[in-house]
UniProtKB/TrEMBL annotation:
<protein>
    <recommendedName>
        <fullName>DUF4352 domain-containing protein</fullName>
    </recommendedName>
</protein>
<feature type="signal peptide">
    <location>
        <begin position="1"/>
        <end position="27"/>
    </location>
</feature>
<keyword id="KW-0614">Plasmid</keyword>
<keyword id="KW-0732">Signal</keyword>
Length: 199
């Protein structure tokens, strides 16, 4: 076999060896980094009301919370009920209208109601909220029906979810927003509302 040909074969083998070692080292570093991040999570900031939370897809401001015997529509239920109402403002930062905010806020307290997800109402017309348009902040009311057998809360801890944007996801190769833990926890007092009843 000519010397030049042997030299080329050795060069290719060396390149393959270096590439393989480099790939294994990169995989090991990535795995170690993931394990370290899982073992040492970044603490979630705890804030008060009226502070803007950047979740990636949304800007969220929790403005207050109160208990009420009326839902946000103002119509008295046939049977007496209690509602936990949270006033908030949402600003859609994406390029398209979206109603993917139903899982955005969760109650972290042990006294949380059995109904995990609130119903969202538009503050301006007291009706159930649908899609929020980009760059048009909207005031909303999140409503939980409070169980009669649980004491009404004096304070509240709300976890605000976080999302990240991927221009190309791993499954479909399409752009999308994905949940990414919690952006912040909002702690605030719960007050009693002055109520007016609509028949």
């Amino acid at each position: 076999m000519p010397v030049m040909r042997r030299s080329k074969i050795r060069q290719r083998l060396l390149i393959m060896l270096v590439t393989g070692i480099g790939g294994m080292a990169a995989a090991a570093i990535s795995f170690a980094s993931a394990v370290y991040d899982a073992a040492n999570p970044v603490p979630v900031p705890v804030i008060g009301k009226d502070q803007v939370v950047d979740t990636g897809r949304w800007r969220v401001t929790i403005n207050g919370a109160h208990m009420s015997s009326l839902p946000p529509t103002g119509t008295k239920p046939f049977e007496p009920k209690r509602f936990l109402l949270v006033d908030l403002e949402l600003d859609n930062r994406s390029v398209a209208s979206s109603n993917v905010f139903m899982n955005l806020i969760t109650i972290k307290d042990d006294v949380a109601p059995l109904q995990p997800k609130p119903t969202y109402y538009l503050a301006r017309d007291k009706w159930i909220a649908s899609a929020i348009n980009p760059n048009m902040p909207e005031k909303l009311v999140a409503a939980w029906e409070w169980p009669a057998d649980r004491p009404e809360p004096q304070t509240l801890s709300l976890a605000i979810g976080k999302q990240i944007y991927k221009p190309r996801d791993n499954l479909y190769g399409a752009p999308n927003w994905f949940d990414d833990g919690e952006a912040a926890v909002v702690e605030l007092p719960v007050t009693q509302a002055v109520e007016t009843t609509e028949q």
